[in-house]
Amino acid sequence: MSSLVEQAQVLVEALPYIQKYSGKTVVVKYGGNAMISEELRDAVISDLILLSLVGIRLAVVHGGGPEISDQLSRLGKKSKFVDGLRHTDGETMDVVQQVLCGKVNKDLVTRINRQGGRALGLCGLDAGLLQAVQLDDKYGLVGEITRVEPAVVTDALSLGYIPVVSTVAMGMDKSCVYNINADTAAAKLAVALGAEKLLLLTDVRGLLVNPKDESTLLPAVRASEIPSLIKDGVIQGGMIPKIDCAVEAVRSGVTSTVILDGRIPHSILIELLSDDGAGTMLTL
User: Fold this and answer.
1) What is the DSSP letter of 160?
2) Residues 263-283: tens digit of each pLDDT
């Protein structure tokens, strides 16, 4: 009987959060371990479906780095990275577009639909959703987003779908397609949609004062504190561009951004519908 009472208590605890987010837009950047592990993938998908069913407007933005590297390897082409970004020549861009807009996007859409959700696959090229110029010649066909046209995503949300967006963009400075960093794309889309929250799924616990001690997690950080955290080495390496995206999002109107531990099953539900949270929340 006690376990039934505990289950009921979990639902009661979730109620004010469901009321808070129902009708609001939440953007989830889906990537890392949560895309590779079957157990974590199923947990993410069930979280998305549940949240959609209680009236939260969810948009999902995904990457697919490991799948791109695997496909390039099959073609006998080695992956090259510059400053943490995939160097993208013309041949690599063809693979990026095929893998992201094709296999990864449609696999994710199919999984959501098969489990009872209503997902719709989109890429940044659809209806001019993501528009970009070249970031820097040293990265090849890697783009910097200059404009987001969110109407196609807004329409999908209005019809009750979960739009699932792959991160390629239409070139505005030349006739080409650009590869876009998924964290950046998610942040830009969250701003364009007027999202309440941006969740960046990662393979880390969040921001840790001591990277080797998960008990030193910073559950909440203000944007004004970020420079000193970078100076003190709390934020370093690959976390810096992720935090930059988070800061840009909250400074542009998104209420909060969460660096969320995607290794924890159902971390999205824990973050949105419980008192605990499951990562580091960034606010103004």
Assistant:
1) T
2) 999 999 999 999 887 899 999
Parallel, antiparallel, or unpaired: how do β-strands 168-171 and 177-179 relate? antiparallel
Task: Collect the ranges in the chain with pLDDT lower than 50.
Answer: none
Angstrom distance (rounded) from CA 146 to CA 184? 11
Helix (H) / strand (E) element for 111: namely: helix 105-114
CB 258 within 8 A of CB 277: yes
Give, rounded to a whole angstrom, the gap between the first and last alpha carbons of the chain.
44
**Unique residue bearing structure tokens 């609001």:** 24
Q: Residue 211 is which amino acid?
A: P
Residues with Cβ < 8 Å from 122, sequence gap 6 or more? 105, 129, 152, 153, 156, 163, 164, 165, 166
Largest CA distance in the chain: 65
